[in-house]
Description:
This protein is of the alpha+beta class.
Amino acid sequence: xxxxxxxxxxxxxxxxxxxxxxxxxxxxxxxxxxxxxxxxxxxxxxxxxxxxxxxxxxxxxxxxxxxxxxxxxxxxxxxxxxxxxxxxxxxxxxxxxxxxxxxxxxxxxxxxxxxxxxxxxxxxxxxxxxxxxxxxxxxxxxxxxxxxxxxxxxxxxxxxxxxxxxxxxxxxxxxxxxxxxxxxxxxxxxxxxxxxxxxxxxxxxxxxxxxxxxxxxxxxxxxxxxxxxxxxxxxxxxxxxxxxxxxxxxxxxxxxxxxxxxxxxxxxxxxxxxxxxxxxxxxxxxxxxxxxxxxxxxxxxxxxxxxxxxxxxxxxxxxxxxxxxxxxxxxxxxxxxxxxxxxxxxxxxxxxxxxxxxx
Length: 359
């Protein structure tokens, strides 16, 4: 089974850095450098190497001051050797797209485009040369700026997705705690009052104390029944419902989901167990994996029912299989009926496989 690799922008967001601009330095400088070496111009060759180093430092450190120093060096090169504008101006435009603050970057790129085109057109008396340099400079700068901008947007979206997943879990916990408080708050208060009455009346009115004790027992049994009903309402799961919920939750988290339908011939206990696996596995994908795709497959044969959840998240699942309360609880549930749970990182993400006997 093959898992799709994550989209390029998602990969860029998880591996931020100026590398996509740095790769252009050798591409743009190799031709002038070879020309300088073959032309026996060691000074020019050394200057080009210095330009490459200055470009690298500008992109790594960012800021207007490093960019200004790089501009001065490039201007000096053009003044002394009066060549290679078609390489120097695009190089400066790329540096501007990465190093200059975003609100100024496009203006700087535009200025480089115009100044380079005018200088090339006047020197060569050629409109074609001017337009070619303008096109190369503008495209180099704007493309770099857009990549930088999109990486920032995707990083923000990834962070927001994680925050939404955490918020959903927190809201569910809050809802559960609120419901339990509403359910038990009054009942426990009555039990406390009744217990105090028993303590006060035990010596002087044993019959009344016994009556209050019976009330405590009745209220306690009723509360236990209500708690069981409430917990049963939360914990009763259906594999079909959980697969539908997983598809919706993954879609809300911007994860492309491939969810197979549940087999129709699963028993009630197996159906519930696999439903818990799907719920916990989906939660782990949303909270831990930073995945872009997730595949959930359900199958069965004569002896075994199986759920497999595979994602392409570089962060994988929880830090350790034994460290996650959810996975530990799942393993205990499955092992209690002779099943098993396997969770491990893969070269392309994370895989969780749950097997239970087809009861």
